[in-house]
């Protein structure tokens, strides 16, 4: 019994232990489960919206994670091609898409309801809404490592909960609004906010007096007025046509296809043409159309787009934001919806500035799953895109009184100014390279640091090895000591050690052992991370030129409007921010010293263009040039004109005139009367003594010019030999032909003979086919004939006939005419039938072009060396500068130039429903081939400038208005 009792005790004890263990393990599971639940508050949201991503497959190359492929994306509902409703009601059919909107940004109450009207989960009630009017919310959660995309959860207040408070929509809510058909933008957590007190404020005070821009026009004569108004009517009619085409075939879409009459949505599908054209409609007095468009503007939902994963920030700002603000301004600040919409859009775009250095992200991944992570500006940011946000945000700040909009762009200006002033910051003083590193991280220094860390890690490893070695040595020593004093302890220690637990049981040596472990952990924390991932991998730096081998400097695309905005910002801020003046003057100095050139062309036009310079080494020591003539660069005349007036630099106005005249000239000399998109021209050595040297031009266009004479001589030689060869071949062929003819006749005769025989044959039973072969009579041709066709043809008595035919053929072949008569060459299908021995006619040597023929084939106006892109895509820059020059100088020559351009453009581009970009301005065809594209700037800019050129000078006077780079007029401070 005592034995059993002992066992019972043991059993009870064992049971308790097992029960406890079970409990513990259950708890751990529970805890794990809890943690998982907890942790996914954020991650959950990353996953949930995925089935909703709904981007259509044509955009699948966009930044879609691998998970996107798992959930077959529902095709995005393309915007219905709605005909413009006859009677607009403010409440449009509330589709799921339109009824879900970003909040009005007005009351915090509304925001509390959650974005898009969705009920907020109860747990977040006490929290401040992420979307607050006015200043941004300062984060209450300190984020330790903003460099990590996922690892930023905080135990007390998981970041995900703040970020995704109302996403995904509660499953319990079954109302249609709760299951949105599209993903919507959500205001993300702001990682790098600017505290209210540190915002850069709009300059205040009385606007400075700025010299007058416009010419002092005197009253015009009745005849001049009549002519002008007749032109105005024509221009308005074309604008009306283009608008009607858009209204009829692409209402609510970005663009109309002017030939195929369909919609096209390259700019997120927020009705780019509609928004872009608003102020044009107003200026041209198309009030009815304006009001109708206004109703459509109300329905635009900037918080979603089925067309793109990224919002192109620059285009969105100049077209949409500029369009809304400009329309609000020109319509006398009466239509509040325009300003509201502008702010709605701006609120979304403000997130692009949430980077460590506040430089904007230029292609904004707006979908929540991409948007909720910390961002950094690109290491290759286009200068134009970076520098052309100023006017739109400045005007918005002025109209709303919210300094955050001004702050956002003032920091870019400051960064550009710093780079412009920095010694050696750019290769050409005052001018920026095409792309800048705006990431704010010094890659060179980061690489250096990585190398240092690797070295450090190596040293640590060495040190660790040394420590391990030391441990082993001591262990051995200890073992030896233990062996000297025998006992249980020795065995125990020995046994444990074999199980790998030696460190734990070691007595006095513990410190050394733990030191080794500690070192191991410390080292792993120092493992270098992939470049640019961790924040401490970013060694801050200001804006930077990319440097070695990649810097190009020009006033053309990707750079243009950054410079354009310096003088315009100065004007818009009433001259109260002197930075813009000094930045403009520096730029102009750089352009004059490095880029301007006079072209060398037929007729010696006294005009100027701006070249593109390349710096191989980040300095101006070894610049190379491309003497380009590009449509985009044509804005420069207007910029020099405006800057020259407001900063009182008459020389700049003169340069502006010659720049504007250059583009007008480039229009004039093309066969269609329109300048190409991109070309190159021969430069003059001197701007003063400049005469077109045709030889020099010919050499440039045709580097083989001198080789061509030798080629021609060679060709003549080859040609003579070829003629002989042809004569010989033809003679041979004629003989063979005669032989063939004779042979054919033989055959014919034999056939006839043959055919007679079987017809006379007695019965089919005796025919050879029936005897041995399976052949049957076919088309009444006796089988015997079929078998004999390839048999030996007997000599016939046709010698005389043969001789005659051969002689005639030979004679013909001998004559040169015959040799060159390609009809005399036998058609190809006959060749294979010829007997062996037939000669082929050798191919004629290709005649090389003469220098003149080559030049003609290039379709270049003498002076132009290449035309890389022969399109005209309805761009405005040339007429823009012509308009500036007219308003600045008052010289009617600009109106005449503009009218010529107008006639050419309309002739070449008009379609049934609007106007289309064309492929080739150098064609002589009456109707150049169309590209079927009518970008929104056609109505926003090109037609507006043409119209304003013939409108009274006080309509959009440059002394009252300043136009953004998309021709949207903003009111200047009085
Ligand atoms: C980047 O770091 C390198 C090396 O530390 C330094 O020489 C260079 O001046 C830095 N560049 C900028 C723009 O700060
Ligand atoms: C034209 O250019 C060629 C080639 O550069 C040169 O040889 C010739 O002298 C030039 N002619 C004139 C009139 O300058
Ligand atoms: C049959 O052959 C004889 C000579 O053998 C000829 O006269 C006659 O015309 C032939 N008949 C036919 C149908 O060809």
From TrEMBL:
UniProt pathway annotation: Protein modification; protein glycosylation
Active site residues per record: 315, 560, 677, 877
Keyword DNA-binding found: no
List of residues binding Ca(2+): 965
Keyword Cytoplasm: no
Keywords annotated in UniProt: Calcium, Disulfide bond, Glycosidase, Hydrolase, Membrane, Metal-binding, Transmembrane, Transmembrane helix
Coiled coil: none
Top-tier EC class: hydrolase
Region of interest (Disordered), ranges: 38-179, 428-493, 735-783
Cystine bridges: 634-663
Biased composition (Basic and acidic residues): 50-74, 447-475, 738-757, 771-780
Biased composition annotated in UniProt, kind: Polar residues: 87-98, 760-769
Pro residues: compositionally biased ranges: 75-86
Protein name as it appears in the record: alpha-1,2-Mannosidase
Source species: Podospora aff. communis PSN243
Lineage of origin: Eukaryota, Fungi, Dikarya, Ascomycota, Pezizomycotina
């Amino acid at each position: 019994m005592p034995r059993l009792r002992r066992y019972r005790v043991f059993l009870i004890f064992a049971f308790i232990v097992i029960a406890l263990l079970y409990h513990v393990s259950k708890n751990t599971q529970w805890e794990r489960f809890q943690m998982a639940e907890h942790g996914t508050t954020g991650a959950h949201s990353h996953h949930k919206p995925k089935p909703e991503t709904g981007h259509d497959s044509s955009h699948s190359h966009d930044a879609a994670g691998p998970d996107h492929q798992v959930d077959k994306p529902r095709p995005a509902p393309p915007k219905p091609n709605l005909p413009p409703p006859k009677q607009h009601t403010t409440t449009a059919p509330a589709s799921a898409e339109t009824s879900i909107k970003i909040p009005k940004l007005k009351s915090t109450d509304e925001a509390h309801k959650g974005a898009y009207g969705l009920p907020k989960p109860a747990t977040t009630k006490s929290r401040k809404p992420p979307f607050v009017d006015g200043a941004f919310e300062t984060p209450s959660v300190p984020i330790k490592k903003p460099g990590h995309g996922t690892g930023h959860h905080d135990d007390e207040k998981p970041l995900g909960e703040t970020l995704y408070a109302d996403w995904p929509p509660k499953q319990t809510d079954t109302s249609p609004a709760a299951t949105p058909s599209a993903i919507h933008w959500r205001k993300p957590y702001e990682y790098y906010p600017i505290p209210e007190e540190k915002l850069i404020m709009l300059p205040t005070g009385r606007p400075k007096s700025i010299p007058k821009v416009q010419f002092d026009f005197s009253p015009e004569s009745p005849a001049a007025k009549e002519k002008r108004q007749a032109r105005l009517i024509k221009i308005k009619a074309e604008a009306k046509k283009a608008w009607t085409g858009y209204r009829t075939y692409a209402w609510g879409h970005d663009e109309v296809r002017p030939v195929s009459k369909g919609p096209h949505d390259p700019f997120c599908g927020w009705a780019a043409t509609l928004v872009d054209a608003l102020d044009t409609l107003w200026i041209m007095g198309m009030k009815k159309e304006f009001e109708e468009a206004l109703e459509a503007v109300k329905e635009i939902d900037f918080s979603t787009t089925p067309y793109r994963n990224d919002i192109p920030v620059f285009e969105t700002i100049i077209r949409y934001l500029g369009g809304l603000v400009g329309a609000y301004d020109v319509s006398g600040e009466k239509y509040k919806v325009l300003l509201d919409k502008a702010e709605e859009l701006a609120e979304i775009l403000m997130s692009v500035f949430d980077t460590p250095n506040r430089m904007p992200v230029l292609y904004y991944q707006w979908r929540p799953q991409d948007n909720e992570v910390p961002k950094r500006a690109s290491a290759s940011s286009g200068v134009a895109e970076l520098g052309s946000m100023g006017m739109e945000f400045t005007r918005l700040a002025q109209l709303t009184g919210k300094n955050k909009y001004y702050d956002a762009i003032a920091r870019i200006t400051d960064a550009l100014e710093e780079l412009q002033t920095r010694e050696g910051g750019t290769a050409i003083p005052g001018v920026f390279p095409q792309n800048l590193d705006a990431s704010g991280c010094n890659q060179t220094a980061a690489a250096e640091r990585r190398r240092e860390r690797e070295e450090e890690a190596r040293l640590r490893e060495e040190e660790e090895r040394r420590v391990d070695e030391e441990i082993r040595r001591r262990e051995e020593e200890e073992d030896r000591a233990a062996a000297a004093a025998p006992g249980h302890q020795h065995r125990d220690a020995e046994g444990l050690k074999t199980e790998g637990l030696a460190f734990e049981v070691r007595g006095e040596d513990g410190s050394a052992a733990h030191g080794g472990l500690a070192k191991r952990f410390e080292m792993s924390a120092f493992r270098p991370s992939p470049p640019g991932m961790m924040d401490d991998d970013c060694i801050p730096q200001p804006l930077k030129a990319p440097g070695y081998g990649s810097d190009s400097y020009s006033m053309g695309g990707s750079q243009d409007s950054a410079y354009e905005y310096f003088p315009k910002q100065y004007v818009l801020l009433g001259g109260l921010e002197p930075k813009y003046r000094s930045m403009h003057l520096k730029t102009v100095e750089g352009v004059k010293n490095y880029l301007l050139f006079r072209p060398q062309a037929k007729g010696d036009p006294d005009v100027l263009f701006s070249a593109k310079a390349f710096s191989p080494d980040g300095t101006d020591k070894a610049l190379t040039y491309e003497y380009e003539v590009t449509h985009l660069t044509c804005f420069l005349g207007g910029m020099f004109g405006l800057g020259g007036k407001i900063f009182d630099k008459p020389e700049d106005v003169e340069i502006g005139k010659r720049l504007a005249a250059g583009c007008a000239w480039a229009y004039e000399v093309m066969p269609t009367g329109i300048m190409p998109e991109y070309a190159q021209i021969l430069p003059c050595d001197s701007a003063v003594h400049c005469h077109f040297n045709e030889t020099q031009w010919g050499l440039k266009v045709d580097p083989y010019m001198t080789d061509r004479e030798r080629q021609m001589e060679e060709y003549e030689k080859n040609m003579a030999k070829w003629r002989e060869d042809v004569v010989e071949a033809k003679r041979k062929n004629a003989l063979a032909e005669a032989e063939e003819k004779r042979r054919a006749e033989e055959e014919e005769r034999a056939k006839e003979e043959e055919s007679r025989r079987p017809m006379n044959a007695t019965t089919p039973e005796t025919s050879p086919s029936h005897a041995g072969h399976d052949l049957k009579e076919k088309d009444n041709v006796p089988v015997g004939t079929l078998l004999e066709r390839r048999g030996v043809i007997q000599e016939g008595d046709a010698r005389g006939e043969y001789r005659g035919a051969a002689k005639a053929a030979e004679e013909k072949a001998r004559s040169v005419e015959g040799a060159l008569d390609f009809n005399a060459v036998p058609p190809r299908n006959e060749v294979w039938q010829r007997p062996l021995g037939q000669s082929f006619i050798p191919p004629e040597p290709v005649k090389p072009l003469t220098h003149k023929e080559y030049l003609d084939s290039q379709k270049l106006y003498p002076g132009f060396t290449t035309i890389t892109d022969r399109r005209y895509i309805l761009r405005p820059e040339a007429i823009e500068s012509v308009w500036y020059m007219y308003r600045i100088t008052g010289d009617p020559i600009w109106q005449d130039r503009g009218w010529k351009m107008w006639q050419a453009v309309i002739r070449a581009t008009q379609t049934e429903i609007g106007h289309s970009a064309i492929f080739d301005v150098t064609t002589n065809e009456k109707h150049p081939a169309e590209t079927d594209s009518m970008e929104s700037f056609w109505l926003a800019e090109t037609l507006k400038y043409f119209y304003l050129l013939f409108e009274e000078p006080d309509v959009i006077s440059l002394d009252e208005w300043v136009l953004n780079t998309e021709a949207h007029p903003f009111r200047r401070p009085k």
